[in-house]
Structure formats: C-alpha cells, structure tokens
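Changelog note: in this version the structure field was regenerated for every chain. One regenerated record is shown below for reference.
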Amino acid sequence: MMKFKFAFICLSLAMSATPAMATTLKLGPDVELIVVDGRKVPASLLKGAGSLELNGGDHQLLFRVSKTIDVRKGVKDVFHSNGLIATFNTHNQGAITIHLPDLSTPKLRKQFKQKAHYQLVGDKNQPIPATTDRITLTDADLNGDIEKKMVDYNSAAHPASVPSLTTLPPSQPVTQPANEGNAEPLTPAADKTDPFILMQYWFQKADQKTRQRFLQWAASKNGQ
C-alpha cells in the first residue's frame, strides 16, 4: 500500500518564493482545480493564481478542463471536460505542469471527453509517472459534497484510488501570519460545510498578492 503524505498546500503566483522540498504545480488558464488530496479548493480563492505549491510525496488531484470556445462568430461557450483524477509523486521535481492536448476543434474536444489524454510534465519537460482516471461530474457534485465523492472513489479500488484517502484527511493547522499577534492556529471546523471557516483556512495559506486579489474580487461582489 502506498504511504500517502498529506499535502501542506498554499496558493502562490509563479514568481513567489518556493519553500524547501516544495514542488510547484503550474496551473494553466484552462485547468480548474477542484480537490487536492481529499480537500476541496475554493474556486474563488484560486481565481487568477498561476500555481499551487505541494510538499514532497504522493498527491491526488481532481480537476477538469474549462475552456472558452468559439461556437460561431460572436458566440462563445465554455467546454467542460469530465472530472480528471491524477495520482503522482513529486520526488525530485521542482515544478510540474499539467500539459493538455490541442482542444481547438469539436472533434478533438469530443475525443478528449471520451478518453482524456494529458500528461504531467516535470522539470526537464519530460512526462512524470502518474496514474489517471476520469469521473462524471455534475453541477450537484460541484455544488455539494465533492469531498465525499472522492472518499467514495478512493474506497472503490479504482485505477487512481488512494487507500489513505478513504476517509477525509485530518485538518492541517494553519498559523496566523506573524503580524496578527497572538491569534490561535486555525483548522477547518468539524462541520466542513461551513464556508466561512473553509475560506479562512485557505485564505491564510495564500501569499499576500493572492490575498489582495481575492479581497478585491470579494469587494466587487459585495452588494450584487
């Protein structure tokens, strides 16, 4: 059985400093990251971030491709792939990129949805070993308990299942930034559906630029 190291992850831009033993997962504009190592990632906090930092070890991602396409002149739509699961190890990799194939035509997009072909590419622009699978994602899944869906997936011995993620991973404590005084470390509430606690948890993992961008986004939504 693979020994799984739970992620300590923080959002970052491509130019932000990388901690020792961390691997930068580069996020292309068409990659919608949904779950990392059993934990849902708030889409609003990831919005505009160029990368995600993972600690050394084994990781599991759930993501989908969300690509704006031209339906006809002056009309655009968004192509969504199935849910894509990848399990891999970050050993000896400073950066990993999700490399997507050409999706410029309806035929190519249909083929990708039927049998997704993509690669995880490492430092030397070479594919790294990864086990992949795909699952159907509905709006109900995305708006509901997607973490439970991943627990069910990992419990069923699918190709990219991770036995260590058959229960929700323990919360990772997050220390308040030094300038916030004696605040207590924060962990997600036992009620993992509490959006306020979850947003606090992920917000405190973000770098300063990403926090500022999120606050600007939140301010723009206020009153809508």
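Spot check on this record: The radius of gyration is 18 Å. Residues 156 and 166 are 9 Å apart (CA to CA).
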